[in-house]
Amino acid sequence: MNSKKQGTKAVWGGQSELFYQGATQVPIVNSVTFGYDNVDDWFDVAIGKKEGHIYSRNTNPTVAVFEEKVRVLENAEAATSFSTGMAGISNTLSTFLSQGDRVVSIKDTYGGTSIIFLEFLPKHGIEVTLCDTANHEEIEAEVKKGCKMLYLETPTNPTLKILNLKRLIKSAHEVGALVVVDNTFATPINQQPLELAADIVLHSATKYLGGHSDAMGGVACGNKDLIQQIFHYREINGASLHANTAYMLLRGIQTLELRVLRQNENAMKLAEHLEKHNKIEQVFYPGLKSHSGHKIASEQMTGFGGVLAFSIKGDFENVKVFLNSLELAHLAASLGSVSTLIGPPKVTSHVEATVKERKQLGIPENLIRCAVGIENIEDIIADFDKALLKI
Predict the structure, then answer these.
(1) 143 and 271 part of one domain
(2) 157-196 pLDDT tens trace
(3) Which of 14, 60, 195, 250 could form a disulfide with 56 if both were Cys (CB 3.0 to 4.6 A apart)?
(4) Among residues 321, 345, 349, which one has the least CA distance to residue 112?
């Protein structure tokens, strides 16, 4: 399956065989527990000698197919899933970091991740260093001082900064650090960090993998040893993905390539249009040649993604006038849906942060994040233009 194209993997990954009674689609197995005819077989499954399932907090047949599909898409050795994307992030950090360890990351991580770095990890005696995202030299210098983990996002949320993964991963591995990359924004269609030597890739499956804003989940991919450690932490701490949700995420992934390619195209057209608009201060999208990370993004990504951000001239009142005048886009948090979702970071990605903290992160109050859907982009552009006229 690894030799196949991504669109084929999205459809067939984990589903190359017929299921119960010849079903071509993955059955939803809601059983909490699984029985055996004899104790010997039960024991062999319990110790991993034979394949099978014992208790759905640990593993489940429907969930296993979801994990396999994402594993195939990321060309990983193994994958394990979680009830939410944040569960995937927190479980991964908790698996590998303990008192006295040091983690290096960037200031532009997702708001929930930032809270873990700023509030939760220090309580457990874990040193956290957050670097200027645009300063690769600073990141490398901090890594060289020694760390257990380098945690990265690219493109970043919400200002779409781009990190040179190959360069930073090399620096981390020189000091024996694990490299974890949140690949939610890019998706396996646009970027594959494991191919650039990252150790672990994370996804909020709630976003592009599911694609319809109706199912929450998370997933981690990497080599078998690392994923087994994360799985062990997750199975005991209980942030398990439910079979019903796994089925919905599986159904969404089958159209992942189709959706992402359309969203790449739509976001580029919208970004180019907004960049020329006289009421727009700045557009943040790595597909634009004016973007500071365009060259790196062109080298390590096959598409620039469906998320862009832009700042409107004036104060937050102008932001409200624009947003309240839109007809097609949902004023809502999240991203990766078939419909366009839009909102300011102060109520979406960085609602937990104060005005001062957002300013320190380089997020102005007049910034708007837009996750473009699969609509006809001409209609979205017309809707935006009409709303901008109200300012």
Answers:
(1) no
(2) 888 999 999 999 999 999 999 999 999 999 999 999 999 9
(3) 60
(4) 349
Lowest mean pLDDT among 12-26, 87-101, 282-296: 12-26
Q: What is the structure's pLDDT at 352?
A: 63
pLDDT at 348: 67
Instruction: Read off the pLDDT of residues 279-300 as tens digits, 9 standing for 90 and up.
Output: 999 999 999 999 999 999 999 9
For the residues of 312-358, what is the DSSP string, one character each? Answer: ESS-HHHHHHHHHH-SSSEE-S----SS-EEE-GGGTTTTTS-HHHH
**CATH code for the domain of 105:** 3.40.640.10
Q: Based on the domain organization, do 201 and 282 belong to the same domain? A: no
Q: How many domains does the chain have?
A: 2
**pTM of the predicted model, to two decimals?**
0.95
Phi then psi for 41, rounded to 5 degrees? -65, -45
> Which residue segment(s) compose the domain that 323 sits in?
256-388
Q: Name, in order, each residue with C-beta under 8 angstroms of 306's C-beta and a sequence gap of 6 or more.
A: 208, 260, 263, 264, 266, 267, 335, 336, 371, 372, 373
- From 194, 224, 253, give the residue that closes a domain: 253
Domain at 262, CATH number: 3.90.1150.10
One-letter amino acid of 7: G
Q: Which of 230, 253, 276 is the last residue of a domain?
A: 253
Spell out the SS3 assignment of 153-204: ECCCCCCCCCCCHHHHHHHHHHCCCEEEEECCCCHHHHCCHHHHCCCEEEEE
Average pLDDT estimate for 111-136: 95
